[in-house]
Amino acid sequence: xxxxxxxxxxxxxxxxxxxxxxxxxxxxxxxxxxxxxxxxxxxxxxxxxxxxxxxxxxxxxxxxxxxxxxxxxxxxxxxxxxxxxxxxxxxxxxxxxxxxxxxxxxxxxxxxxxxxxxxxxxxxxxxxxxxxxxxxxxxxxxxxxxxxxxxxxxxxxxxxxxxxxxxxxxxxxxxxxxxxxxxxxxxxxxxxxxxxxxxxxxxxxxxxxxxx
Length: 212
What we know:
There is one protein chain. The chain has 212 residues and is α+β, with helices and mostly antiparallel strands. Helices cover 43% and strands 19% of the residues. The chain has 7 helices and 9 strands, in the order αααβαββββββαββαα. Helix 6 (175-184) crosses helix 7 (186-211). The two termini are 23 Å apart.
């Protein structure tokens, strides 16, 4: 049920994904619609719009993660997520943050744990990271992919565990840097929204497989 101030249909505009649900007006209602061009303009003019969208999407994503965590370890197939940021965007982001040396994690090293406080989000520069919910690996994140952003958006505990699947080089972004990037770099906010949107779709598919 979508109430005043809430958002629907954002995945199609953010990530070009097909509709995954049907929306029907149950009572007389008025809505504000945005096409892709208007959406991009809103991100540029009102950075807080991106943060509001992230907050709503993170709530929905956490609900999907909770459902996925109730599955048996074998349910669903791990998704592959990378290339949200291309090589040039990665270099530009490193320059913006003034980071010449990435954080290095050897294969098998736990990067973050479920339930822990989240001080950083991460962008994968090299290697591959496994994201686990409960005993299940739900996705792999490769170069150009991002993870750990949920805790920076809603300041809640980590919803998943991230482990270096191979030797990895990661770019860590703390909350102050995260907020500055969203407010000053609309393309970063758009990329982050796309990353969250893809995760929502991937987890929804996994939950659907569980329930089939």
